[in-house]
Design a protein that fits this description.
Chain A: This is Sugar ABC transporter substrate-binding protein. Chain A: Belongs to the bacterial solute-binding protein 1 family. The complex is a heterodimer of chains A (432) and B (299). Chain A has 2 domains: 229 residues, 3-Layer(aba) Sandwich (D-Maltodextrin-Binding Protein, domain 2); 193 residues, Periplasmic binding protein-like II (D-Maltodextrin-Binding Protein, domain 2, 3-Layer(aba) Sandwich), CATH 3.40.190. Chain A is built from 22 helices and 13 strands. The termini of chain A are far apart. Chain B has one domain: MetI-like fold (Orthogonal Bundle). Classes of the chains: A alpha/beta (432), B mainly alpha (299).
Chain lengths: 432, 299
């Protein structure tokens, strides 16, 4: 008994010691931040840009530091998969970085917790007007803007023309631009070659995007009730269930992440998929497939809607150098810097001026698939929008829909039953 | 120490305290990184906490919600399926491997390290490689087709019936070498004279195995059972990499569920409650193991 008591005592002492330690260290940091008024240091986190874009980012930082000798930028690159966890840990321990590159979905969760600076207030109007309207609005939840848009992309379909020819299809005419056409390609390719004609990814929020493109409305106006249990919603469930159960799309559509999609395309197993963001990777890993790749506009439903994805820059409220942080965020996303970035990788800028550059309209002679991706992507920017806006409890909603459509595709439920299930789940989540 | 010799009473006291002084560094580290987070998690399980705003005490609500959550029960069943499937294989198969590599053969070191390689292989790499093995047009289906065992490809990782079992195989594959080493140490600690004595008593090789080897290995079997069942309860990486818990949560285990709740949905309090349940289950499991299997080996 005595021994146990002693061990317990030591443990408690240890704990007190530890908690005292952690308290004093965070206190120390605060003092450091406020006393250092001469030169401020901004911590800047990006999402998986090293090592490919190290030179570019370091160049931008060097330019900025030259123009603002009183501000120093400390850059940290975080793997995409770890970013959400890292930023959360940092925010909860009150050591948040000053400028962070996030996506609207995750940023909206942080905004929901009131952890981000409101950009409508922090950014002067003359600066705000420089950004594309759609890109700016993509970072809004409940009417407040929680981020500055950085780079954008619209979906461009990649088609392996070799498989089209093998299946007796004409790449010029038969490349699908609608879901119905994609279904036809899937059928013909499967029958003629045994390969897959179409690989629609159901990953992450893509199920919701497919549904919106097919004309389903996700929620009612004020976002309090599910609104997708309609003819259109049912059609979406039915469509993917048919494809899956007739083995017209790979079974990995349900479990696979994007890795398996690219693997299969690079392996010459899939004729058509939406994955233009991976074009550089395909060029490097599978040059033969790349040579036969023909980019085309995004596949959509009867609404003609196309989706845009936005990378953004947020400033956490915990920052002690808000002005400097905003200054850097605006510098990073200005026309000149964005244009330079876009020339390194097929992405689109979020500022109007950069988009006017001929680089986005003129493919030049003998364009490579990479150039075509850029041109197609820029051309459909006007008709693209953020199809699934940031919503509260987004992750739960998305999961509920994914579970329902999975049940339908796997034959555990009929499409209508699955849709009813999703509606019930959404109503429960939305009423929270 | 020399000073304490001067005073007998003082010496006694110092000597009694000395071991605890040695324990302080270890306890501090354990306290900081194991016990403190553990207590913190227990506290959080009674709160609503999203990592950003302050934790709000809500009593047993998290547990109530947890017990009414079908998905929680399903992941619990999956976890037990995993334990039942993986533990016997990890307890029994490595014994054979250990006996095999315990032979005095030329180059036995090579075989020992060969069996150990999966243990040191990064699970991410192994997971991706196994993913290819299991693909519809992957290696496994190809071999089974060649042997005329199957007529059409089996959807190893993409069917609700097989996904979890396919991942189990990877866990077993990865664990074999590790437990083999433990058994190997056990085998080598059995004194030669026990076998000699058995021989004098007229025991054949089978008797030697059943009456000497296995009883002497029992403490190691106990350790392996406990370690492998705890590891199986906490399985995460294989599943995260290979199936992500799908299709339709059929391979989602408790830890993956906790991870998703905590880091995707930011329900830290709720995830902590599930974590506490996992902790209790692991504890009960270990106690049962020790009680049942440790009986004969308490000497």
């Amino acid at each position: 008994m005595k021994k146990g008591f002693l061990v317990g005592l030591i443990l408690i002492i240890a704990m007190v010691f530890v908690s005292a330690c952690s308290d004093s260290s965070s206190g120390g940091e605060e003092a450091e931040g406020s006393s250092d008024s001469e030169k401020v240091t901004i911590e800047f986190w990006t999402m998986q840009l090293k090592p490919t874009f190290t030179d570019y980012i370091e160049g931008v930082i060097a330019d900025f530091e030259e123009k603002n000798p009183d501000i120093k930028i400390k850059w940290l690159d975080v793997p995409a998969a770890d970013l959400s966890q890292k930023i959360l840990t940092a925010v909860s321990s009150n050591t948040a970085p000053d400028v962070v590159n996030l996506n609207p979905t995750f940023a909206s969760q942080l905004a929901d917790l009131d952890a981000l600076v409101n950009m409508d207030e922090a950014v002067p109007e003359e600066n705000r007007n420089k950004y594309l309207d759609g890109a700016w609005k993509a970072n809004q939840i409940d009417g407040t803007t929680f981020a500055i848009p950085w780079y954008l992309s619209t979906e461009v379909t990649l088609n392996n023309t070799k498989i089209y020819k093998e299946a007796g299809l004409d790449p010029e005419k038969d490349i699908p631009s609608t879901y119905e056409e994609a279904k036809r390609v899937a059928k013909v390719v499967k029958e003629e070659t045994g390969k897959y004609g179409y690989f629609p990814s159901m990953d992450l929020s893509l199920v919701l995007q497919h549904m919106v493109k097919m004309g389903a409305k996700l929620t009612n106006e004020d976002g309090t009730k599910a609104a997708f249990n309609t003819q259109e919603g049912l059609h979406a469930f039915q469509y993917f269930t048919d494809l899956y159960q007739n083995d017209l799309i790979p079974r990995e559509a349900l479990t696979g992440d994007q890795r398996s999609t690219i693997d299969m395309y690079q392996g010459g197993q899939v004729a058509t998929f939406m994955g233009s963001q991976f074009i550089s990777q395909i060029k490097e890993n599978a040059p033969d497939i790349y040579k036969n790749t023909l980019p085309s506009e995004a596949i959509t439903g009867k609404t003609g809607k196309k989706t845009i994805s936005v990378q953004n820059i947020v400033v956490p409220k915990q920052t002690k150098n808000k002005d400097a942080a905003i200054k850097f965020a605006l510098f990073l996303t200005n026309a000149e810097n964005q244009l330079e970035f876009c020339k390194l990788v097929p992405i689109l800028p979020s500022v109007k001026k950069a988009l006017e550059d001929p680089y986005f309209t003129d493919a030049g002679e003998n364009p490579e698939p990479e150039d075509l991706v850029r041109i197609k992507s820029a051309a459909q920017l006007d008709e693209s929008e953020l199809l699934v806006p940031p919503m509260d409890h987004y992750d739960e909603l998305r999961q509920a829909m994914f579970d329902a459509i999975s049940a339908s595709m796997l034959g555990k439920k009929s499409p209508q039953e699955a849709l009813d299930q999703a509606e019930k789940a959404w109503n429960e989540i939305l009423s929270q | 120490m020399i000073i304490s010799f001067k005073n007998g009473v003082k010496q006694l006291k110092t000597n009694k305290l000395t071991p605890y002084l040695f324990l302080i560094p270890g306890c501090t580290i354990l306290g900081a990184f194991i016990f403190y987070p553990m207590l913190q998690a227990i506290w959080l399980s009674f709160t609503k906490y999203n990592m950003v705003t302050d934790a709000e005490f809500i009593g047993f609500s998290n547990y109530e919600k947890l017990f009414n959550d079908d998905l929680f029960w399903q992941t619990l069943i999956n976890t037990f399926t995993y334990v039942i499937g993986v533990v016997p294989a990890l307890v029994i198969l490595p014994i054979f491997l250990a006996v095999l590599v315990n032979q005095k053969l030329k180059g036995i070191g090579f075989f020992r390290s060969a069996y150990y390689i999966p243990v040191v292989t990064s699970l991410v790499v192994a997971g991706i490689a196994w993913d290819w093995v299991y693909k519809e047009n992957g290696l496994l289906n190809y071999v089974l087709d060649l042997l005329h065992i199957i007529n059409e490809p089996v959807h190893w990782l993409t069917s609700t019936q097989t996904a979890i079992f396919a991942v189990m195989v990877v866990t077993v594959w990865k664990g074999l070498g590790y437990y083999m080493i433990i058994y190997l140490a056990g085998l080598q600690s059995i004194p030669e004279d026990l076998y000699e004595a058995a021989e004098i008593d007229g025991a054949n090789w089978w008797k030697k195995i059943t009456r000497v080897t296995i009883p002497m290995l029992m403490p190691f079997v106990l350790i392996v059972t406990i370690m492998s069942s705890i590891a199986a309860m906490k399985v995460f990486e294989e599943i995260y990499i290979m199936t992500g818990g799908g299709p339709l949560h059929s391979s989602e285990t408790l830890v993956l569920y906790i991870y998703n709740e905590a880091f995707d949905r930011l329900n830290m309090g709720y995830a902590s409650a599930a974590g506490v349940i996992l902790f209790l289950l692991t504890l009960i499991f270990s106690i049962i193991n020790i009680k049942f299997m440790g009986k004969d080996n308490t000497a």
